[in-house]
Design brief:
Elements lengths: L7 E7 L3 H12 L4 E5 L12 E2 L1 H9 L10 E4 L1 E5 L7 E4 L6 E4 L1 H13 L4 E5 L1 E7 L2 E6 L2 E12 L6 H5 L8 E11 L8 E6 L4 E8 L2 E8 L5 H11 L8 H11 L2 E7 L11 E3 L13 H14 L4 H27 L3 H16 L1 H11 L6 H21 L4 H30 L4 H14 L23 H13 L11 E2 L2 H13 L6 H14 L16 H13 L10 H10 L6 H10 L30 H13 L10 H10 L27 H16 L2 H20 L8 H14 L4 H9 L4 E4 L3 E4 L5 H14 L7 H13 L21 E2 L8 E2 H14 L6 H13 L38 H17 L6 H17 L14 H14 L7 H12 L7 E3 L3 H4 L4 E6 H13 L5 H14 L13 E3 L3 E5 L2 H21 L1
Parallel strand pairs: 1-2, 1-11, 2-8, 5-13, 11-17
Antiparallel strand pairs: 3-7, 4-7, 5-6, 9-10, 10-11, 12-15, 12-16, 13-14, 14-15, 18-26, 19-20, 21-22, 23-24, 25-26
């Protein structure tokens, strides 16, 4: 050949891959002189296109290259899709008997290069790296020497990082959105030979095709930012189970033996082919995900059409028109198959339905997919029909109010995607190579393709993660510490820390009943007030709360009644706060207690009518329809209010009147202060209806029957006695318990039930020298023991714990309520038989999720702990708690079909008027049913099966559009999503279930840089997720348990979370105290002291189980 340095060519082609080589061959056949430059001949060994659609086969045939089975070519008849619902595969054969071909990339490139080298008008320059392009001159270096060639036409076929593209001033910055691993499977049989298999796995699509007589290629999509080790871990942990037939074991074997190639996936829609003198083809012009195998066909089309000659504008316009439909289909199908968002799942399932129902739609799809039909009109019709059907399916769900909240965002999201697609493609066509315009178009398109055009790597700067940590030492230390906390009766119980309000009311009760505290108790109560005081000297509703007028007032009064002087440093700053905020603005519960102590006038307290209990039960306002805690608090208040008792005015009380009311107690207009409420203390201010009800109650107070009042009050006192006798005289909670004692004392200071209840107050008290005496928000022995047993039973190789586990299970068995309470119907109670309480059997108020977690705890230790009869009673109790909508309530099923929150008189709390369906209770019951199904199936019947189906439907309807659930007993979305995932799994959700995957994705998207998870409690006020600045060990444990139970394949994320727990653990096995993780009624935060022990332990135990299984 002549020296290339001295020659000019018609065409200079940069890049001797399949597209560049074919371009050189086609130009040579049309009489052009060509030079072909390739920087790295070994690029043919990389993972790249191997599936050729029928148009590619025709182009090769036109150039005299016929696929030869002897040269490693395999016929391709079309594709078969395996949906994630594990339904029947969907066959998409090429139309009219046409066929494609699978040609191993290296062999294909070798065959094309050989054909090029046989052309006399083509000079092939291997190892020639192009250094610059100026006008029609291409400068290069080759084997250490510089050179240049001139050509009338310069063609860039040099891939994504094209030198020719860069010479045009166009961006070559890759927009990577995923990685792929090409795994070589050996000696496998494919379910549908000569078809490409598209498997919709839980984390992304998989493409499988026959590569040779004894081999197949499996290309799997992996999220970006993973190291090779992480990709292998992720693939082994999840993808293998999604593969059809016997491909799973072969896949794992190939991974172990390292038979794979890795590459990145990037996206760049075609919007220009360059200029008349410099033309881009193949990946240099645009590229997409290989799922649809369109890349090679489009690149061959570019090369073949360019070689036909003619005007550049005609070529560019023709190719932009012919590639628009295939590229949109490639982008769209990948997006729909890879995206786990709800709207993508809706589109995906619509596509499945259309393919299964209508052969014509299958035929149209494969024609578009194979680039046989490149009409944008055809694609628009197909996409429009799919979108319309998906929208119609979602809109049909709106007839149910519970579904409307979820469906509306789905409809909106689908609409936004298609509007953004149209607008973005138009912007891209008008960009004209201007970088700013191109970026604007990309930004718009990212709303249509949020997976493939998200723009930034979600894990920036991540290169290599250390190996998954060995958590065995941390696990052992945590288990030993938890075992050391077990009580002699076999239980575990941690304090449920809430609010100094309870301790203050405890003091006020003793003052009113003239039973002073002994000096030791007085000292420790004051110690607790000092311990719970906020930084500014006031007190709040919990330790993270801003100052509350309600709590600060009660604590201030209690401290003064205990003998603390007004100028004592303990309370002096609080008095300044009270005077600034104005005690008349205290919420109603505070007005009520102050009136009892004679620090407020009853005229300033809104009436609490005992006559409400005489309403017909069918009337929604009847208290039997209220949430049980609210019902019992106001039952006691209704029995106290008619007495309008006020304690004697002692010197301290007289001084307090002056301290609390700076303008003088006698000058306060108490009647005008009924509705004066400090905004910062409130969750919701009383509405018009409630204020009108108060007005009616005041009118009734003037003209109502005294005889009826007496009968109603006496009836309520009887109900209070029944409540005390069925709760071991402790009441459902100390809030109502204190009021119950006061009620009985007011009517008879020597009442036997009242004296027992006063003595039993000790059961609510926690006391030590450090934190003093405090009244707990709840007792939690059954609850804590159930979770502790579940965690410990999961620990692998936990030696010496058998007795502890057996004792714990025995404790739980003893806490089941074995009989119905006499009179439970008259007391408006649900039959408690078979249930477990939060505290213990003595409490008398069983809860559905407490029952479920107790059952799960016993079964986790030993399925024989409870008899079938006992488990059957538990199942029946849980079923009684199921609501009409399919979800489960807590203490009872919901009784009122009418929402009563507008009537809520407890201004400081929300969602406290009726029972609701809770994701936590629903999921726990489903998990307990599943545990019974596995170990005691005889206790389940058709009613349980129906209940599971209804609960599963409710869970899916309650799931937020983003995949999360809002919990109500923990903070908040992480807690709810933890249980939501558990509930879906218990109801039988498959690994690829869209709802399950969306929930896991929601958790993964909220992982903190340090590996942990953290949600701020202030989001409870608004009902929105608010990220915490600091990762929380309890939230991290919830997230990890959910991901591990769901079998999420993101092992790298799970490992980082575990590493956070390992690094956070103290030497003694404890984890540090952080923010309160429990909550009720939206505003009341609780610190469950043992949460930070058994939930992280459970997460570490699950992790160690799976880590060891993966290493085998």
């Amino acid at each position: 050949m002549a020296s290339t340095e001295s020659r000019r060519y018609d065409v200079a082609i940069v890049g001797a891959g399949p597209v560049g080589s074919l371009c050189a061959l086609a130009h040579a056949r049309n009489g052009y002189s060509v030079v072909l430059l390739e920087a790295n001949p070994n690029t043919s060994k990389r993972l790249a296109g191997e599936w050729l659609h029928p148009p590619s086969v025709r182009i090769l045939s036109a150039l005299g290259i016929e696929p030869d089975t002897g040269a490693g070519c395999i016929p391709g008849k079309g594709f078969v899709v395996f949906p994630e619902d594990r339904g029947e595969p969907i066959l998409l054969p090429y139309p009219d008997g046409r066929h494609g071909v699978v040609w191993e990339h290296e062999r294909l490139v070798s065959r094309l290069r050989q054909a090029v080298e046989d052309e006399p008008s083509v000079d092939v320059m291997m190892n020639a790296r192009v250094r610059g392009i100026e006008d029609n001159l291409v400068s290069y270096s080759r084997n250490g020497e510089a050179g240049s060639v001139a050509a009338q036409l310069i063609v860039g076929a040099d891939g994504r990082a094209s030198v020719v593209r860069r010479s045009l001033g166009l961006s070559t910055r890759p927009q990577t959105y995923s990685q792929m691993l090409g795994v070589l499977l050996k000696d496998v049989a494919l379910p549908f030979e000569e078809y490409g298999h598209v498997v919709c796995a839980e984390r992304g699509p998989i493409l499988i095709y026959r590569l040779g007589e004894h081999s197949a290629r499996l290309i799997v999509d992996v999220p970006p930012g993973y190291s090779t080790r992480e990709m292998i871990d992720t693939l082994a942990g999840s993808y293998a189970g999604s593969l059809p037939g016997t491909l799973g074991p072969a896949f794992l074997e190939a991974l172990r033996e390292g038979r794979f190639l890795a590459a990145t996936n990037a996206i760049r829609p075609r919007h220009t082919y360059g200029t008349p003198g410099r033309v881009l083809i193949g990946d240099a012009a645009g590229h997409y995900h290989p799922l649809t195998a369109a890349g090679m066909t489009l690149g061959f089309g570019d090369a073949f059409t360019l070689a036909e000659g003619g005007d550049y504008r005609d070529f560019a316009n023709r190719r932009l028109q012919e590639t628009r439909s295939p590229e949109l289909l490639a982008m769209g199908l990948y997006e729909v198959f890879a995206d786990r968002r709800v709207e993508a799942a809706a589109l995906r399932h619509t596509i499945y339905r259309q393919w299964r129902e209508k052969p014509a739609i299958r035929d149209r799809t494969i024609r578009l997919l194979a680039c046989e039909d490149t009409s944008v009109v055809s694609l628009s019709r197909a996409v429009g029909a799919t979108a319309a059907r998906a929208l119609a399916t979602e809109i049909k769900k709106c007839y149910k109010p519970s579904a409307l909240r979820r469906t509306r965002p789905v409809v909106r999201a689908i609409s936004v995607r298609f509007l953004s697609l149209g607008r973005g493609m138009l912007q891209l066509r008008k960009a004209g190579g201007v970088t700013e315009r191109e970026e604007r178009a990309r930004s718009t398109l990212s709303k249509a393709f949020p997976v493939s055009m998200r723009g930034t790597d979600p894990r920036p700067g991540h290169i290599e993660e250390p190996a998954p940590p060995d958590a065995s030492a941390t696990l052992r230390s945590a288990a030993e510490h938890l075992l050391s906390l077990q009580r002699d009766d076999g239980s575990w119980e941690g304090e449920v820390v809430w609010c100094p309000m309870l301790t203050a009311q405890y003091v006020l009760l003793h003052h009113i009943t003239e039973q002073p505290l002994d000096p030791g108790r007085r000292r420790l109560v004051l110690r607790s007030f000092e311990h719970t005081r906020l930084e500014g000297g006031a007190w709040g509703l919990h330790e993270h709360s801003p100052p509350h007028l309600f709590v600060t007032t009660l604590v201030y009064v209690a401290a003064r009644l205990l003998g603390v002087e007004r100028d004592d440093p303990l309370i002096a700053p609080a008095r300044q706060f009270l005077q600034a905020e104005g005690v008349p603005n205290i919420p109603t519960w505070g007005k009520f207690w102050l009136a009892l102590v004679n620090l407020y006038d009853w005229r300033g307290v809104n009436p609490v009518l005992p006559e409400l209990w005489r309403l017909p039960r069918r009337v929604p306002l009847h208290p039997s329809n209220w949430y049980c805690h609210t019902r019992l608090i106001y039952m006691a208040m209704a029995a106290i209010y008619p007495v309008r008792f006020q304690a004697p005015v002692t010197p301290v009380v007289a001084s307090l009147r002056e301290e609390l009311f700076g303008d003088g107690f006698a000058d306060v207009d108490f009647a005008a202060s009924r509705h004066r409420l400090r905004d910062a203390d409130l969750f919701a201010r009383p509405g018009v209806c409630l204020r009108a009800g108060y007005g009616f109650a005041r009118l009734y107070e003037r003209f109502g029957s005294k005889r009826l009042r007496a009968r109603c009050t006496a009836e309520l006192i009887g109900r209070i006695r029944w409540e005390l006798r069925t709760t071991d005289h402790m009441s459902i909670s100390p809030v109502s318990g204190l009021l119950n004692i006061l009620c009985l004392w007011l009517h008879d200071p020597d009442d036997a039930d009242g004296r027992k209840a006063l003595a039993q107050l000790e059961g609510w008290i926690w006391e030590d020298e450090e934190a003093g005496t405090r009244v707990a928000g709840a007792r939690s022995a059954s609850w804590d023991t159930g979770f502790a047993l579940q965690a410990l039973a999961t620990v692998p190789e936990l030696e010496g714990a058998e007795d502890a586990l057996r004792c714990g299970a025995g404790f739980l068995r003893r806490q089941q309520i074995g009989t119905s309470f006499e009179g439970f119907r008259e007391a408006f109670r649900m039959d408690p038989k078979g249930g477990w309480c939060f505290a213990g059997a003595w409490h008398g108020w069983p809860v559905t999720d407490c029952t479920a977690e107790a059952v799960r705890g016993m079964i986790a230790v030993d399925p024989e702990t409870a008899s079938p009869a006992e488990l059957g009673d538990a199942v029946r109790f849980m079923l009684r708690g199921q609501n009409r909508d399919g979800g489960f309530g807590g203490y009872e099923s919901r009784r009122s079909a009418v929402g009563l929150e507008w009537l809520n008189p407890a201004e400081m709390f929300g969602e406290s008027m009726t029972e609701h369906s809770h994701v936590e209770c629903t999921a726990s019951c489903l998990a307990a049913f599943e545990a019974c199904r596995q170990h005691a199936p005889q206790v389940l019947d058709a009613e349980v099966i129906r209940a599971v189906t209804r609960a599963d439907s409710w869970l899916r309807e309650a799931q937020e559009h983003d995949g999360s659930w809002r919990g109500v007993w923990g903070v908040q979305y992480i807690y709810g999503t933890f249980f939501g995932i558990r509930g879906l799994l218990a109801a039988g959700a498959a690994p690829g279930d869209p709802a399950l995957r969306a929930a896991c994705r929601w958790l993964l998207d909220r992982q903190q840089p340090d590996g942990g998870w953290g949600e701020h409690h202030r989001g409870c006020l608004t009902g929105r997720y608010v990220a915490h600045d600091e990762s929380q060990v309890i939230h991290t444990a919830w997230a990890l348990i959910a991901l591990l139970e769901a079998g999420d394949p993101d092992w790298a994320a799970i490992s980082r979370g575990v590493r956070f727990l390992i690094n956070t653990q103290k030497e003694n096995g404890q984890l540090p105290k952080q923010d309160m993780a429990g909550v009720f009624f939206r505003t009341a935060l609780l610190d469950y002291v043992l949460y930070k022990q058994y939930f992280p332990l459970h997460a570490l135990a699950l992790y160690e189980q799976q880590r060891r299984a993966r290493s085998v």
